[in-house]
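Incident log, structure service

09:12 report received: a user says their structure output differs between two submissions of the same chain.
09:20 pulled the input from the user's history:
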Amino acid sequence: MTDGAVSKAARVLVAADKFKGSLTAAQVAERVTAGIRRAVPDAEVTALPVADGGDGTVAAALAAGFERREVRVTGPLGTPVTAGYALRGPTAVVEMAEASGLQRLPEGVRAPLTATTRGSGELLRAALDAGARTVVLGVGGSATTDGGAGMLTALGARFLAADGTPVGPGGGGLRELATADLSALDPRFRDVELVLAGDVDNPLTGPTGAPAVYGPQKGASPADVAALDAALAHFARVLAGPLGPRATELAGAPGAGAAGGIGYGALVGLGARFRPGIEVMLDVLGFAPALARATLVVTGEGSLDRQTLHGKAPAGVAAAARAAGVDCVAVCGRLALPPEALERAGIRRAYPLSALEPDPAVSMARAGELLERVAERLAREWLAS
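09:34 re-ran on a clean worker, output below:
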């Protein structure tokens, strides 16, 4: 379309994820809205920041009207941190990265063998204490590779060495595991719907397991990766004692390897159900009724690349828009997908900031301003008549 009279029917739904390192999802929505209204002042714009279950999931829930609750929990290094979760009525959104994420580590510090998910279990317990009956556990951005053992410990499980003392924290401690006692796990999980929301379907161990694929980004050396893989496999074998064959079966289930294996802990110990994170979040955030009113959807994230096509937020938003017969375009910092891949994903066109500013550092520093400019351009092309 070209500049000219504005269609009075223009109703835009902005449902984009964060631009990691520069803009939160809420800031992306704010900037896109400003750019659209600069070009098409009469456009009706609805902002619905989204997330795929990783870091930013609680922020997306808060933008949708959830209330933030804060609690002091154990950080990945064992020291206290203040973490938040989102609550609306009987539904809670818990983001494991709030308690156990890389963001909780001091600059330059990594602890691949000893980082614990204990704080994530404490967050879950706080959500239950607040009355939650449905809990979405968003996983991603973790500093940990402990198979969820720390989380389960916080909820009443006991993992003991041969001498009867508790094993050490982190995946490294599981090498000494001799017995597992889950009899005192918080009984409320029997009556709570726990949804494991993630964007990866990796198993717990093996070539595509949590240590091999994600351990290096948490500071694990090749020797650490091998040790963690062996420790998590040992963890599953020991759990087969009290839990039977399903303990080893679930180690190979999609999502078991999410966030350093916390997915496995949630599946095997808490009866969680795994769902793609973006599907869960679209349900929780009320995307369907917002989509029903839209004539154009704008989605996006910092980098549109091959990973986007495998469960990331823009792919989920675009698929839903296409199923509803609504055009979807995307904004991004960097575009690494050809037009045919975008079209297959349901994205009619992408508008990268790099088209205006090719220097990545400058683009990230000026992301808000540049995003308003590309939003103004897409509005003129898709909303003007």
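09:41 both user submissions now match this output. Likely a transient worker issue. Closing.
09:42 reviewer note: Residues 222-243 form the longest helix (22 residues). Residues 322 and 346 are 6 Å apart (CA to CA).
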